[in-house]
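Deliverable D2.4 — example input (structure tokens):
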């Protein structure tokens, strides 16, 4: 398939390339030209020529929701006071957003251009069910494995035999055989690395070979095998970290898989936090857009009254009604009118912000109604305990928990890497019951142990066993040694990242606390500024109507009043966002909005299994009860830099 570019530059390049090619291959170009000009295209060529270059679309069902397809035209300059409103509280908005959030939407995201990077509620389940790195995939390494084979063979082979000296002729005998082979094995790997196997094998052989007790006989055995690694690959820790039969540097055990799931859960929680952060931002910005519009509309109405009064004074020729005053009042009115239209339908206007909130809530762009926030903002001063907040930030932040899981994973990988430096030393034990029979299955004959194969095996006259050790290792253990060094450097890197995260979080929390204080002080100042401007407008309005002042003072005061009212609501919204940012930096934003996250319930059988195993960790109520303590943890997450060492330590 070819893609054709239709721009002039690309057409020029293709043409020049064709000229150069034809210059080098003149005869071929001439034949191609004659064929193009003198021969008409066949019907097949006419049909397939446009089809092979057409861009194809996959036959996949589209999810065209009715509320999306039937969306009314967007609001532009309609008067919001004349539209039906839908009052919505902040808690209701958050609840609605979460209930419609299969995709964790983001105002700055790119779900259309780059959908692969968008977080969804399915991500933890996708990680958990990964057939390669998921928990169940890691546990499947300990599942019982069954292998079986059953083959039939018929052989008919001529043999090259020398001249028969008695008969004086060549003799070419034929080897004829009917054979069957059956193998069946069930094997199980344990958490300690041991492998148990039970195996049954029998063979059938019916051949024209001389000197045979039975022309057709069955041979077979039952055997039981036990293989236990003693050094490398031994122990619960290694097999749960790296997994059985893992290579050097490969860590696919159940503990690593579960940590990957926990990291995915942390990523999902971080996505929820970012999503709630955007919802709250859009909600309070819409609150500000309403009050900003109200301030500008009030200013425009006052400017209109002033303009009308000035025109009336001009009409009757009274003082203060000159042409310059009328023009200034008219300009002031249209200045307010421009600001009102921009606050209503501009890029950051009421309708645009209301549509952003609609998107975050999973609502259609328009539905004939307009959302209106009704939650009253906090206007009182909030006091907090800095030391407690800092402690919470350094322990409850989801980023800290995620990084600690990374450290936990690197610690476990270092444990497994050190175990990989050991040689392979396995103990092997095998016991076998062997038999021979004229038939495979027949009634027992006490006078003939070889009446059937299974009679011969079960009588146990022929038993074999094997026990021993197997040792193998690469000289120098170079790969295993460098794996230890790599694990140490990875652990050092993750610990350094955690240290830097804690430093950055302390700075971010300090800045958030400072912004809370700043926003509150600005809120108080802008409130007093608004009251002062209201009094100023009243005073200047009276002086202008009395003819004592120029109209310029009144017009400037009206502009200042609209600006101060808008600034007051801006500082009020900034104070809400500063409180939100403080809780986000402290790691308590979800609790601040009454949101809880938890994993799904276990399967029913898992609870019974946990109760059964948990009894071993509970002291028994007896006269001489001995407390059974749980096994020690592999690591508590702490890290001592002195234990890292240098990569050369593995030599």
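Example output (designed residues):
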């Amino acid at each position: 398939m070819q893609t054709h570019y239709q721009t002039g530059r690309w057409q020029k390049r293709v043409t020049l390339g064709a000229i150069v090619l034809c210059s080098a291959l003149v005869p071929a170009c001439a034949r191609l030209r004659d064929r193009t000009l003198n021969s008409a295209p066949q019907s097949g060529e006419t049909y397939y020529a446009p089809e092979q270059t057409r861009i194809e679309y996959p036959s996949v069902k589209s999810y065209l929701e009715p509320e999306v397809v039937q969306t009314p035209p967007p609001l532009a300059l309609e008067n919001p006071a004349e539209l039906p409103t839908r009052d919505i509280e902040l808690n209701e908005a958050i609840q609605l957003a979460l209930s419609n959030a299969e995709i964790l939407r983001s105002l700055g995201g790119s779900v259309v251009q780059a959908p692969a990077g968008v977080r969804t509620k399915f991500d933890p389940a996708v990680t958990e069910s990964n057939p390669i790195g998921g928990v169940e995939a890691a546990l499947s390494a300990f599942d019982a494995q069954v292998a079986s084979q059953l083959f039939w063979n018929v052989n008919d082979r001529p043999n090259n035999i020398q001249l028969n000296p008695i008969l004086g002729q060549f003799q070419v005998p034929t080897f004829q055989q009917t054979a069957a082979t059956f193998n069946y094995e069930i094997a199980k790997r344990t958490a300690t690395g041991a492998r148990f196997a039970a195996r049954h094998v029998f063979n059938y052989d019916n051949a024209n070979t001389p000197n045979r007790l039975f022309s057709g006989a069955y041979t077979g055995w039952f055997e039981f095998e036990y293989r236990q690694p003693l050094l490398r690959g031994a122990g619960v820790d290694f097999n749960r970290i790296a997994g059985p039969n893992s290579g050097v540097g490969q860590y696919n055990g159940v503990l690593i898989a579960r940590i990957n799931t926990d990291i995915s859960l942390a990523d999902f929680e971080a996505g929820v936090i970012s999503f709630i952060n955007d919802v709250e931002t859009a909600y309070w910005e819409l609150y500000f857009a309403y009050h900003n519009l109200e301030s500008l509309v009030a200013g425009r109405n006052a400017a209109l009254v002033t303009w009308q009064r000035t025109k009336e004074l001009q009409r009757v020729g009274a003082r203060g009604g000159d042409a310059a005053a009328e023009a200034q009042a008219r300009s002031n009115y249209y200045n307010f009118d421009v600001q009102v239209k921009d606050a209503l339908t501009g890029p950051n206007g009421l309708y645009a912000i209301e549509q952003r909130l609609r998107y975050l809530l999973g609502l259609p762009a328009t539905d004939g109604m307009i959302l209106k926030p009704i939650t009253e903002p906090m206007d009182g001063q909030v006091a907090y305990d800095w030391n407690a907040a800092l402690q919470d930030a350094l322990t409850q932040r989801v980023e800290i928990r995620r990084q600690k899981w990374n450290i936990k994973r690197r610690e476990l990988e270092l444990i497994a890497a050190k175990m990989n430096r050991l040689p392979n030393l396995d103990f092997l034990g095998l016991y076998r019951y062997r038999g021979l029979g004229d038939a495979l299955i027949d009634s027992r004959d006490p006078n003939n142990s070889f009446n059937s194969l299974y009679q011969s095996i079960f009588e146990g006259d022929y038993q074999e066993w094997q026990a021993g050790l197997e040792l193998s290792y690469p000289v120098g253990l170079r790969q295993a040694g460098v794996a230890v060094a790599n694990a140490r450097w990875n652990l050092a890197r993750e610990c350094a990242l955690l240290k830097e995260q804690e430093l950055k979080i302390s700075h971010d929390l300090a800045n958030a606390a400072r912004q809370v204080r700043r926003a509150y002080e600005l809120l108080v100042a802008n409130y007093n500024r608004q009251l002062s401007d209201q009094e100023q407008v009243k005073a200047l309005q009276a002086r202008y109507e009395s003819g004592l002042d120029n109209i310029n003072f009144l017009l400037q005061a009206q502009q200042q009043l609209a600006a101060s009212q808008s600034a007051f609501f801006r500082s009020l919204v900034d104070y809400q966002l500063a409180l939100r940012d403080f809780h986000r930096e402290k790691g308590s934003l979800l609790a601040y909005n009454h949101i809880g996250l938890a994993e799904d319930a276990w399967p029913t059988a898992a609870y019974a299994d946990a109760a059964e195993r948990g009894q071993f960790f509970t002291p028994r109520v007896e006269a001489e009860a001995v407390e059974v303590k749980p096994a020690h943890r592999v690591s508590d997450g702490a890290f001592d830099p002195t234990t890292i060492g240098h990569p050369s330590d593995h030599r």
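The beta strands are 85-88, 145-158, 174-189, 195-207, 216-229, 370-373, 424-437, 463-472.
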